[in-house]
Design brief:
The protein is of the alpha/beta class. It has a seven-stranded mixed sheet. Strand 2, helix 1 and strand 3 form a beta-alpha-beta unit. Helix 2 packs across helix 5. The radius of gyration is 18 Å and the shape is globular. The structure holds fe (ii) ion. Fe (ii) ion binds next to loops.
Length: 337
């Protein structure tokens, strides 16, 4: 049996055909918000950005891992309530919180591949243990989070969007991780220590066809990117928002969300984007108040704690990733970002 934090529970698995269902929601503009990781300051910034949408309020789908660093009960409750008031799917964090007491113990449920170090996996399991203690105070909210779907199909303009947490076969899958995508980026692969099976164009096209979608929107694997996949005369898109609640790029402090819209004009604050069929697709920055978030984080995860050791440097300095590495084939880096 695989160690806690590395295993992928059977209940996480599904087939891409499951996404070929009729769309559960239709919207003119849709935000996909993955990986909030318990940052209430980022959530507020996202809702404020939504209020400024020129065409009216967008639909918002939170596609999992809304919780993680929010061991403060007040933050946990407020984030749960805000997310449950909107469209949402569950991530491995919510699934594992809700599985408390079952036979299965997948730790954090991250299904970390073998190129992620044991130290990182151990700290994630420790964070999960602390988060479970907070979640235990809110059994009703945790039950509702656990009852959320694992994936969701949406329609924007005339295009169908497959919203997943991990990949089209698993809620905690890593096949849509930046480092797994072909053509491989040698710098990214070296920086994350990637090894394993790359995700080929043939596999992606198979998944798109079986799910009957033009776009896969995912999160979970932590680094954002977008990539067009040519499919005959039609284009498809994989877009992974990385993290809405944590910095994503070197020397930056903003989160990233995915915006999909039937309005083909690029939004002024787009980081990078493209058009797929009748759909404009962009990565948007989540410019939250960093000082406020850092203070909240440190109150919950002081130096020496597993949360601090895993995330403080990302919160204050970003990751190794450059923006141009996230805007892959067919995707344009926007001027001024
Ligand atoms: Fe996740």
């Amino acid at each position: 049996m695989e160690a806690r934090g590395r295993s992928c529970p059977l209940s996480y698995r599904y087939q891409p055909e499951a996404l070929a269902e009729p769309a559960k929601l239709e919207a003119h503009t849709l935000y996909v918000v993955g990986g909030l990781y318990g940052n209430p300051v980022a959530l507020r910034a996202i809702l404020e950005r939504a209020d400024r949408e020129p065409g009216g309020p967008p639909a918002i789908v939170c596609n999992g891992d809304v919780h993680w660093l929010d061991v403060d009960p007040g933050d946990f409750q407020a984030i749960s309530e805000a997310v449950l008031a909107r469209h949402a799917t569950k991530g491995n964090v919510e699934a594992e919180l809700a599985s408390e007491g079952s036979d299965q113990d997948a730790g954090c449920g991250c299904a970390y591949p073998d190129y992620v170090t044991d130290e990182v996996v151990d700290r994630s399991n420790q964070i999960m243990t602390r988060l479970r203690a907070t979640a235990a105070r809110f059994p009703e909210l945790v039950g509702r989070l656990g009852a959320l779907p694992r994936y969701l199909t949406a329609q924007v303009a005339t295009e169908r969007i497959g919203i997943v947490h991990g990949d089209p076969e698993s809620q905690a899958g890593w096949r849509l991780a930046l480092e797994a995508m072909e053509p491989g980026d040698p710098d990214v692969r070296r920086q994350v220590g990637w090894r394993g099976r790359p995700t080929t164009t043939a596999e992606l096209l198979d998944w798109f066809g079986r799910a009957k979608v033009s776009v896969f929107a995912s999160t979970h694997t932590g680094l954002p990117f977008a990539q067009v996949i040519a499919d005959g005369r039609q284009d498809r898109l994989v877009i992974n928002n990385g993290s809405a609640g944590l910095p994503n790029f070197a020397g930056t402090s903003y989160g990233v969300i995915t915006r999909l819209s039937g309005d083909l004009r690029p939004p002024a604050d787009s980081l990078y984007g493209t058009t797929v069929g009748a759909l404009r697709c962009d990565a948007l920055p989540v410019r939250f108040d960093l000082d406020q978030w850092r203070a909240r984080f440190l109150a919950q995860w002081p130096p020496g704690s597993p949360g601090h050791r895993s995330y403080f440097s990302r919160i204050t300095g970003g990751t190794h990733l450059r923006l141009d590495q996230a805007a892959r084939d067919g995707v344009r880096l926007m001027p001024g970002c």
